[in-house]
Amino acid sequence: MLKQLKVFIVIMVAGIGFSHASDTAKLDSLGLDSLMLRQKLKEYHAPLTRFTDGFYTNPAMKYYSRNSSLTELSLGYTADKQGRYEMQQGKGGQRFGFDTEALLKHKDKDVLWGSAAYSNGKRKNVLWNESSDYAIIAPYVMADTVGGDLSYEQYSFSGGYGIQLGKTMLGISGKYRALLEYRDIDPRPKNVVSDLEFELGAARALNQKYHLAIGLSARKYTQENIIKFYNQLGSPVVYHMTGLGTDNKLFAGNRTESYYNGGGYGFQLQLAPKDKIGLFSTLEYRDFSFDKTIRIVLEALPMAELKSKLWKGELAYLLGDQERQYGLKIAARNEQRSGIESKFDNRGQGSYVKIASSKNYLNEQSEFRLTGIYNVQKQKTMSWQVLADIGYTAERTEYADPARSMDFRAISGGINLGLTSVLGKSLLQAAVAGKISKNTDATRSWSDLNASSAVYRMLESNYAYHVSDYQQLNLSARWDYPLKNGMGISLKSVYSYTAFDTKYTGNQFLLTGGITF
Amino acid sequence: MKMTLRNLWIPLCALLMLNACKKDSVLDSKQIALNLVLENPSGLTDAKLSEVKVTFKEINTGKETLSTNVDQQKMNITLGEGSYDVSLAGQITYTEQGKSKTKKVAGLKQGMVLTGAQHSESLALFIVEEGEGFVIQEIFFTGTQTPENKLYLGDKYFVIYNNSAQTLYADGLVIGQSDFLTTQKRDYTPNVMSEAVAVGSVIKVPGSGTQYPVLPGKSIVIADDAINHKEYNPVSIDLRKADFEIFNEDADDIDNPQVKNMENVYGRMVLHNRGFTSYVLAKFPNGTDDFLTHQKYDYSYNLQVGGVVYPMDQEEYKIPNSWIIDAVNLSVQSDFQWIVTDPSLDMGWTFCGKLSADKTRFGKSVRRKVLSTTTEGRVILKDTNNSSLDFEAEAKPYLMQ
User: Fold this and answer.
1) CA pseudo-torsion sign B112, B113, B117, B119
2) Which of B5, B7, B16 is the best substitution to test chain A (most A C-beta atoms within 10 A)?
3) Is A366 at the interface with chain B, CB within 8 A?
4) What part of B 24-53 touches A (C-beta under 8 Å)?
5) Distance from CA of B17 to the nearest CA of A (A)
6) Which residue, A317, A361, A314, is CA-closest to A336?
7) Looking at the DSSP assignment, which residues form a beta bridge with residue A297?
8) Which residue of B has its CA nearest to A347?
9) DSSP result, B72-91
10) Which of A221, A341, A511, B397 is buried deepest, with most CB atoms within 10 A?
């Protein structure tokens, strides 16, 4: 059933693209196809577009996010290896996959968009975590001291539709992600993730320039996390982690089935101009929570509940004209995650009885960032842009009993220089970017732990990663070449090099090739 | 237009900033005031406690809280919510026939659930009778692992040690394996644990009473199969020099005719290779027939499966606590639920492996620790009736060295 659904969605996304291609083909007789495609590619991949994309995430505002229709299909390979990393996330990996994105815009009428992606990859050296989606379910993962590489396959689909009704725009969008993560040697986790989200949006023109939009979203998340061991002689201890290296001692052992069942809602409010010049603002709130239960024979025990509250706000002002734009953006983000854990008694009548629950875990992440952009975009000659940003990030994590904490703050800034040039029929885009991050303050406390313990070493290693200063260099290049009938081919490569504060380095490489129309 | 925007965004931005600054950092840690009443062993005159240490171990967090604050047989302490195992160690001074005596005292309560605002609980204390006779020195119950990573189980053994200064006779010594598992707590009715240990199998050293002397500081080995196991598994043990072996005629068992067989008193002694059962060392004061006639234990319990309760009846035997010379509880951390002896016999437990079916347990045993060595060179083993303290867990088997 799931497979048929995936096939249907891929066909649907391709359908959006091909219906758009037939529109484009009509232009061939005018001899403008190459020019049109280049123009659209410039728009879709311009740093200026990315600068303002965050203000058009509401499905009712999607219509204004692009001026033209475009479909892109790409195949790609990514590899990365990090010297400093969070053990639960792994030290990098490799991924092979394809992505398809299409947007079809009918002027003054509606917009239809969709995407489909498939990834097949491996996360390397994942330790203290046998579950998937660590960023979502942390710290309530299952773990052991063995760990290793994790293979995965991920499918994701999204789509939406926005329609203009006089001064009002209505939109609906949905996205779905399915992840299967596994290992073929002991310990053998098999994790199945399903993540579905829908959003409804409505926008109203306040005047000739600005639209005010509101969006409401709902989310459903599940993860089934089961570890198996094929070794006849036994297995290592499986831990149910509860934050900053703690675990529930009562269930440490061979309870190897965990289930995560979550859901949430959100709202967003935007004010943005139709022509992408002027004042932009967005405010977003997302509420998400999940329960973790473990299964022991026929009993399902509610181990923990995690509640997440995310606020995000951005305010920007862009000035300029068709050829030259400049502006500033200020962004703030705050997420608070709190974990309520259960305590059980097993000294009763043979089964586990929940006797208490308390909020033991707290994690808060905040970020403030100021970004400036100067963009010169000319139709025929070379275009260039400069982006610069400076920001402050802070994160603190606390655990109640035993009392442990970790707290760190950093300032970071970067500059990105981009160049877009037309050479013959080709469109070339290149960028070089540098980023520096400097830790300003950090403390941690897990004094109850023995310094020789594996948990202590894990916490220290993660702490060293979080508080590392680093310098990062990013190089990227993209080549687009128009073919006949409004179609084109593309090639893109990105290389990133990170030097941490000590001898550790990180490398990331991406290569994709695709077609556009 | 400008006013509209200002009116809209100023409060929204203020809300965001307020939320960002708000510290939702109140971590719950509900505290309960516990009033623990210490009940002295009955029958003591002018009893007074001293050097009392009480350990509260919360079984979810593993956190241990130690307190010595005893006043008027009471301890008042504030603890977080949870399920606690409470253990006490101390000394008690009392008067007996006009003379003052001081002995070690202990107490154990498992599964004390603390919720609400306050809680009162009593803890019954008992005098620790430290062993000076035979003790269980070692139990090798895990078996070994072959080079082909297969289980090898026939090489298990017990070592019984004379911890006294006198020659003792092993004749008539019995080893009982608990019928109850330390990993499965049930409400057995009638509950006889304060008087006896329910056993599922019992073996006995043969002899007339003086056939098998054991010198002070010496031991006897009781093997599962007293053969050279190295012939079948090179990492196993040569048990041909064992003093006794366990043999079951009605089973596919190996009998070494050179080694005396243990008498099978009741059931079939098969050592649980994950260590979920406990063992007692005893002597029947009136012989085997008396035991089999008078110590039947018929009990019932409710088996719960998926919320459905099935009433169960079982017929086994029990060994009275007063006949028991030594006891050792075994379990694993991941599945431990209770000890299956009265705490006065053994208030702790020891282990090989951290979880059920732990592959690291093979080739390991539990061995009693050495307390001291006399000037004559006799080793005295530690026996405080607390296997958690008296035994070295996951030790290298003595006969493998």
Assistant:
1) negative
2) B16
3) yes
4) 24-30
5) 8
6) A361
7) none
8) B111
9) TTEEEEEEESEEEEEEEEEE
10) A341
pLDDT band for position B14 (50/70/90)? Answer: low
Residue A31 reports pLDDT greater than 90: no
Cα–Cα distance for residue pair B189/B302, rounded to 1 Å: 9
- Residue type for position B194: S
Strand pairing class (B31-39; B74-80): antiparallel
**A42-46, A183-187, A307-311 — which is least confidently predicted?**
A42-46
Give the Cα separation of B34 and B17 in Å (integer). Answer: 43
Token couple for B197 = 């240990």
Residues 312-341 of A with CB under 8 A from B: 313, 315, 332, 334, 336, 338, 340
Nearest to A269 among B12, B302, B357 (CB): B12
Cα–Cα distance for residue pair A180/A172, rounded to 1 Å = 27
A358 → chain B, closest CA residue: B28
Share of chain B above pLDDT 70, in %: 93
Residue A282 backbone class (left: φ over 0; alpha: ψ -120 to 50; beta: rest): beta
Q: Which residue has the higher pLDDT, B224 or B26?
A: B224
Q: What ipTM does this complex have? A: 0.82
Beta carbons within 8 Å of A168's beta carbon, 6+ residues apart: A202, A203, A204, A205
Which residues in chain A have Cβ-Cβ distances shorter than 8 Å to B12? 269, 283, 313
Chain A residues touching residue B16 (CB < 8 angstroms) = 283, 311, 313, 332, 334
User: Residue ranges per domain, chain B?
Assistant: 31-127, 134-400
pLDDT digits (tens, 9 = 90+) for A245-294: 999 999 988 889 999 999 999 999 999 998 889 999 999 999 999 999 99
Q: How far apart are CA B261 and CA B247, in angstroms?
A: 6
- Residues of B with CB below 8 A from A234's CB? 353, 355, 357-361
Contact of B206 with B367, CB cutoff 8 Å: no
CA angle B112, B114, B119 (to 5 degrees): 95
DSSP A219-245: EEEEEEEEEE---TT--PPBEEEEETT
For chain B positions 160-189, those within 8 Å of chain A (CB to CB) are: 184-187
Tens-place pLDDT, residues A42-84: 888 888 888 999 999 999 999 999 988 989 999 999 999 999 9
- Whether B220 has a pLDDT exceeding 50, the answer reads yes
Q: Are B256 and B241 in contact (CB under 8 A)?
A: no
- Chain B neighbours among A 230-249 (CB < 8 Å)? 231-237, 246, 248-249
The answer to whether the beta carbons of residues B178 and B271 sit under 8 Å apart is: no
CB A136 within 8 A of CB A310: no
State in words which class domain B31-127 has: mainly beta
Place of tokens 């009715």: B189
Using alpha carbons, select from A358, A356, A329 the residue that is nearest to residue A345: A356
Q: Is B135 helix (H, G, I), strand (E, B) or coil?
A: strand
Mean pLDDT on B343-371 = 90
- Chain A CB within 8 Å of residue B300 CB: no
Q: Which of A248, A281, A346 sits opposite B9 (nearest CB)?
A: A281
Tell me the residues of chain B between 184 and 243 that have a Cβ less than 8 Å away from chain A.
184-187
Distance from C-alpha of A143 to C-alpha of A122, rounded to nearest angstrom: 18
H or E segment at A45?
helix A33-45
Please, which residues bridge with residue A428 across strands?
Answer: A421, A479
| Cα distance between residue A335 and residue A98, in whole Å | 31
Nearest CA in chain B to A361: B27
Residue-wise pLDDT tens digits, B109-167? 988 999 998 999 999 999 887 767 999 999 999 999 999 888 898 999 999 999 998 99
Give ∠ CA B11-B14-B15 in degrees, rounded to 5.
Answer: 85
